[in-house]
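for ur thesis appendix - Saccharopine dehydrogenase NADP binding domain-containing protein. copy paste whatever u need, i formatted it the way the template wanted (i think)
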Amino acid sequence: MSPLCVQWNAAAVVNNRGLLRMAVANDNQQSRISKVELPHKLKKKKRVFILGGTGRVGGSTAIALSKLSPFLQIIIAGRNRERGAAMVDKLGDNSEFTEVNIDDFKSLEAALRDVDLVVHAAGPFQQVQKCTVLEAAIRTKTAYVDVCDDTSYAYRAKSYMDKAMAAGVPAITTGGIYPGVSNVMAAELVRLSKIESKVQPERLRFYYYTAGSGGAGPTILATSFLLLGEEVVAYNKGTKIKLKPYSGMLNIDFGKGIGKKDVFLLNLPEVRSAHENLGVPTVSARFGTAPFFWNWGMGAMTNLLPAEFLRDRSKVQQLVQLFDPLVRAVDEFAGERVSMRVDLECSEGYNRIAIFSHKQLSKSVGNATAAFVLAVLEGSTMPGVWFPEEPQGIAIEARETLLKRAAQGTLNFIFNKAPWMVETDPKEVGFGIYV
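the 3d part is after this line
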C-alpha cells in the first residue's frame, strides 16, 4: 500500500496481487485525504515551475501542491505581476513569482534551468503549432506535465519521444482531470477486466459534464469554441470514423450529486490514445454543460458558423470577449460541478463503470494535476513522453495513490462497479435486485 496518511471515506481494497478496487458511495459526506506523507526521496525541497500559475488551472494546481506537500518550492510563472504577487501571498513562504513569456524560448529555457519539474497550464492548446515548453524542458532536462486537452497538440508532444528519452526526461501529456484522471480510470477498468473475468474489452466511452464554465471563465470557453471547429474522431470496431462535433446526444446518469445530463460528441485526445494504448476497438467521448441553453448554443454555433471560423484563435478570442460577461453571470447560479463517467463494455456481457464527481472544477482540476506532478516527482514516470494510461507514464502500482490524491473532496467516486449500482434513482424489483 502507498505511504499515505489517509482519511478516506471509501471502500478501497487492494488484494494480494495489488489490484485496485475502489467503490466510493460517500453517503452524503465528502471523501477527504489529509496531508500526504511523501517518500523519503522527496524530503528535500523540489522546485516546481507552474506556467500559467496565475490562471485558474495553474493556480489551483499550486494550491493543491502546497497542501499535499510542504517540501515543494513552487514558482508561479506568468505575465501578470500583480496576480502573481497575489498568488504568492496565498501560498506563503515556499513560493515565488517569475515573469515569463511562453513565446520567448530563451527566457523560458533560462527559467527552467534550476527547477525539477514544469507544469504547462497556459492553455488553450488548440491550434498551437509548437511544443515550446516541452522542448525547453527537454533541453534543460526538466520533468514535464501538461494539461493539454487537444489531440493534435498531444500527438505533437508525443513526437518528442526520442528526444525526451535521450535526455532522460520524464514527461506526461494530457495530465489534468479530463483527459488525465479519466485515462487512468479507463486503464484500470480495462486491466482489471482482463485479470478478474478473462474477458476482452469491446467498447469504452468517456462522458463528461461541467456546470457553466466550471468557474474557469475565458480559457475553458475558448477551448470549447475551438473544439467545435474540429471533426470528432471516434473508433467503431477498430475503424476510425469522423463525426460532426456536438452531435450524437445521449442522456447519461452521472449518479449522486449530478443526476442525468445530456452529453454530445467532442474531439478529445483520450479517444485516440485509449484506442491505441488500451487496445479497445470502439471508443468515443461526449461532453455536456448546464444550464441546458448552453448546449443549445454550442449546437447552434456548430451549425451556423463555418468550421474555419471556429478554428481561428483570434476570432474565437473575440467571441470569448463577447460572451464572457454572460458566462460569468450564468456561472453565479450554475455553479461549477464537474463529473466524469467512464463506461467499459466487454465480451460475455461484462460491463463496468467508474464515476468521479466534485462540487468545484477549479479545485478538482488542481488536485488532479497535482497528483500527476507528485507521481512524476516520486519516480513513477520513465524517460519519454507518455499519456496517463501508459504504464511507462503512470506506473500501474502508482495509480491507486494518484486516484486517491485526485479524488479528495469528491461528491461521489465509484470505481469498477456494475452500471446499475450507480443509478440516481434505481428501481427495486423482484427479490431486491436492482435493474
